[in-house]
Amino acid sequence: MSTVAIAPITESLPAFLDAHNFSAIAVIVDNHTFRFCYPELKALLPKHTLVRIKAGEEQKHIATCELIWDALTRANFDRHALVLNLGGGVIGDMGGFCAATYKRGIAFAQIPTTLLAQVDASVGGKLGIDFNGYKNHIGVFKLPDAVLIEPHFLTTLPERELRSGFAEIIKHCLIADASMWEDIRRRDLDEQDWPRLVAHSVAVKQRVVEQDPTEKGLRKILNFGHTIGHAVETYFLTQPRKRLLHGEAIAVGMITEAFIAFQKKMIDQSLLTATEEYIFSVYGNVKLNDEDIDPILALTLQDKKNRGRDVRMALLDGPGSCAFDVSVTSAEMRRGLDFYRGINKN
After folding, report:
1. What are 30's strand-pairing partners?
2. Which residues contact 337 (CB under 8 A, 6 or more apart)?
3. 50: Cβ–Cβ under 8 A, 6 or more apart, which residues?
4. For residue 48, what is the domain's CATH number?
């Protein structure tokens, strides 16, 4: 597994660099991390190449990768060089993908700056980009050489970004730690202990990834809420005025998929109600119209857990427990989305 350090970047980054002898260093940033986070790194680094890209999921495509590969090539990076990805999930996924494929692979480290990236995207070695509107459609599994988590970076985030990242914390508790789920659901967003929850989520994900690095089995439980969630997120990417952050879409997915698990008699009414009520209290309700449902269902056919046209989900099968490779029909998903929308709840 990768080395994961949760510590001030002034301690973790020099220690990591001192332990290696990289021939060159590139730092990939977006507009936000260039302004708020890069100044803290700059003084800690030797001479390096700065690669600055625009922020946002809409930049996570092959054309941006070409800009990154071109910058590394023009700087004459060899296979002993290092890429530092300073940003959220987009920078980590795409920067890692570029490093893993440049000259068949060079070293890279993730320095996640969002809650979402610190608790999920930076850990586990899933790298990739979107393609033709499909999320993370092209990618590889490659563990970073290090994940350096600076808790202070969370203070640079607006509340909406914190809320988005919290969805992955909720997921980790629901699938793997019933007692932590009971703890977090009794607190409002502004009452959560972020350092404790970041460490907890990292530990949950590391434990699962160590057993199944390339998602052949157990690791699929980390996708609870993501079959529907990714479909909803992808659908709204084409509608800028309705665009959702990742965690906001996963919140939709977790409620919908919890209902599917309930309908399949995998969880009881009390867990469904607790999940629904808490997630709605944090995220509110995303408006889904009748005409949105068929396109969202169509997008689930591209989910990476599927077998042919058989949609496979990770579904809760008890508090702090999750099953994977559960076959789900279009009719079941439609009923789940109707439940989310408040239709036929009784």
Report:
1. 53
2. 228, 256, 288, 293, 296, 297
3. 26, 27, 29, 38
4. 3.40.50.1970
Same domain, 106 and 22: yes
Residues of the domain holding 206: 163-340
Taking the complete model, does pTM exceed 0.85, yes or no? yes
Tens digit of pLDDT at every position of the chain (346 positions): 678 999 999 999 999 999 999 999 999 999 999 999 999 999 999 999 999 999 999 999 999 999 999 999 999 999 999 999 999 999 999 999 999 999 999 999 999 999 999 999 899 999 999 999 899 999 999 999 999 999 999 999 999 999 999 999 999 999 999 999 999 999 999 999 999 999 999 999 999 999 999 999 999 999 999 999 999 999 998 887 888 999 999 999 999 999 999 999 999 999 999 999 999 999 999 999 999 999 999 999 999 899 998 999 999 999 999 999 999 999 999 999 999 999 855 5
- 24 in a domain, yes or no? yes
Q: Are 184 and 323 in the same domain?
A: yes
Q: What are phi and psi of 336, to 5 degrees?
A: -65, -45
Is 284 inside a domain boundary? Answer: yes
Q: Are residues 140 and 167 in the same domain?
A: no
Q: Are residues 204 and 295 in the same domain?
A: yes
Contacts of 155-158 with C-beta under 8 Å, sequence gap 24+, read 156/32, 156/36, 156/37, 156/113, 157/113, 157/114, 157/115
Is there a contact between 192 and 184 (Cβ–Cβ < 8 Å)? yes
Place of tokens 């607006």: 158
- Copy the structure tokens of residue 285: 């309700």
Instruction: Give residue for tokens 């600076």.
Output: 150
> In the listed set 156, 185, 207, which residue is the last one of a domain according to the structure?
156
